[in-house]
Amino acid sequence: MAVESPVKIPALDYEKEMKRWNQVYKILTEDAPKIEHSPREMVWRKNKTTLWHYPAKEKKYSTPLFFVYSLLNKPYILDISPDTSVIAGLTKRGYDVYLLDWGNPGYEDDDISFDSYILDYLEKGVKRALRHSGAEDISVVGYCLGGTIASIFASITDLPIKNLIVATVPIDYSVGVAPEKWLEGLQNGTVSVDRWVDVYGTIPPALVEAMFRTLAPINVSPYVGLLSRAHDSRYVDKWRRMDKWLNDSAPFAGAALKQMFNDLMKDNKLVKGELVIGGRKADLSNIKCSFFAVSSANDGLIAEGQSLPVMELVSSEDKTYKVVEAGHVSLALSGLFAPIVDEWLSTRSDLA
Amino acid sequence: MAKEKYDPYKGFRELTGMWEKQMNSLLLSWSDNTDYIKLSNVGLQTHTRYLEMIKRNQEIMANFMNMPTKTDVKNVAKLTIQAEEKIDALEEQIWNLQDSFAAINKENMEFFGELVALSKQMKEELDNNVKELREAKKVKSDLQKLRKELSDTNELKAELQELRRELTEANGLKLELQELKQELVQFKEVKNQEPVQEKKEFELAGAGTSK
Asked: How near does any CA of chain A get to the CA of B120, in Å?
């Protein structure tokens, strides 16, 4: 007579397990997924930088959107898959979208500083977008470090910026997710990266990735997460796209990196209003257009305290701050950013 | 009723997540001290000096072997970038020119528009003038006709006046005739009286001769 066990162990779902391990095998053997972009055309190209235009499916607003992405990563996270693309989400909602892709700076681009990026690339790019669209003004959206760059740009430019949106933006570098002594070491000069940056010229992607990795040296949970949900093909596809993007950092121009470490991280000049770009003082109080800042509640890279001070620094009368239940990357990866932008921007854009 | 299935990964994932979080916190807390920062800086500077030495030696070796180095390629690339910047600047100048031309064209178009409007207005006025002229001609011909009629009337008037004069003259003649008639009557009367007298005289004269 069989004895019934007092602990009930549910049976394994063999079908699910087969599917899971098949997917794992595929991931290990197949190439990384190819990222197919939404329909776009090249408007302008300078050095490694490209200005892309994603036309609206059915144009509803005459004010175009201009995306400025971070210098540390590649901007295709904004258009990573047809289902969750932030850009496609916005073109479907009737916006003409422009994206400034900084490209991959080479060894010859070691002297590209924030000044060059903002004045020689971003300002000219916005001019081109305005000319290409025929619009009278434009809405600028900055993501991550792109938000910092967009804010600096908005504070010094004479171009007609109607709305400024920044997401997960580092503004105040006196706080951060890095350990306190690290920041202290940078700020008091115990650690200096100048010579190291000079010898590399342009920091290779592997070192940029390593810089990120120092904030979370052990990183196994994404792989365990993948294994636990490998039976779900949609999750696997999303995971693979994200993994490809995470391992595809952009090289960082030396002069810009030195400026980021010294002017922003060490001296916190942007918050103090002491940052000078191309002889013009980048005082955030010069920003008077409608302003929208978005922070991610589960951001492992940019603490909310780094973004929040911007609300006090800008002079805009119409300013909104929103915290979204998302991570630093998942805000863009999930496509959640598109409806958030549309909700705020739709009433602040001119109708076509 | 759905049968509960065993998912061995759920617990594993949760445990790994907790372990990872704790390990990262531990590593960061270990490194969160000044000594570690100083040591890192020493490591960074050593690494930098080592790389500088490699680069310097690479340049020297490449120079001996008459081979271009990454720096040479960088310099050439910079020339390309400069050329690109110049083209960009030229393109912007062309834009400005295009804008100026567009503005001038716009002004010209407005001017031409005004000209066209003016021409239309002039044409309309000309048409009106032609119409008015035609009417004036018609009026003139009417007037001429009227004048002719008037002159006819004048002629008629003159004739009438002449007729009246003739009539007056006829009246005068009539009067004269009446006078003549009267005179004739008188003369007749006188003539009638004369034979009696003459008879008397004759008789008187006869009487005298007979003696």
From this structure: 34
Cβ <8 Å between B5 and A10: yes
pTM for this prediction: 0.79
| Spatial CB neighbours of B172, under 8 Å, sequence gap ≥ 6 | none
User: From first to last of its 211 residues, what are the pLDDT tens digits of chain B?
Assistant: 445 666 778 888 999 999 999 999 999 999 999 999 999 999 999 999 999 999 999 999 999 999 998 889 999 999 999 999 999 999 999 999 999 999 999 999 999 999 999 999 999 999 999 999 889 888 888 888 888 888 888 888 888 888 878 877 777 777 877 887 787 777 777 777 766 666 666 666 655 544 4
Q: Say if residues A51 and A260 touch (Cβ distance below 8 Å).
A: no
Contacts of B33 (CB under 8 A, 6+ apart): A181
Classify strands A49-54 and A65-68 as parallel, antiparallel or unpaired.
Answer: unpaired
User: Can you tell me the ipTM of this complex?
Assistant: 0.81
Q: What is the DSSP string of B101-148?
A: HHHHHHHHHHHHHHHHHHHHHHHHHHHHHHHHHHHHHHHHHHHHHHHH
Bridge partners, residue A324, by sequence: A296
Residue B90 with chain A: CB contacts under 8 Å: none
The tokens 């681009």 sit on which residue? A109
Q: Tell me how long chain B is.
A: 211
**Closest to A211 in 3D by CA, of A331, A148, A301:** A301
3-state DSSP call for residue A187? helix
**3-class DSSP assignment, residue A199:** helix
Interface test with B, best of A120, A123, A196, A223 (most B CBs within 10 A): A196
Instruction: Kindly give, in sequence order, each residue whose CB lies less than 8 Å from that of residue A272, ignoring residues fewer than 6 positions away.
Output: none
DSSP assigned state of A79: G
Tokens of A225: 């997460």
In this prediction, residue B1 carries a pLDDT of 43
Name the residue among A10, A108, A196 with its Cβ closest to that of B6: A10
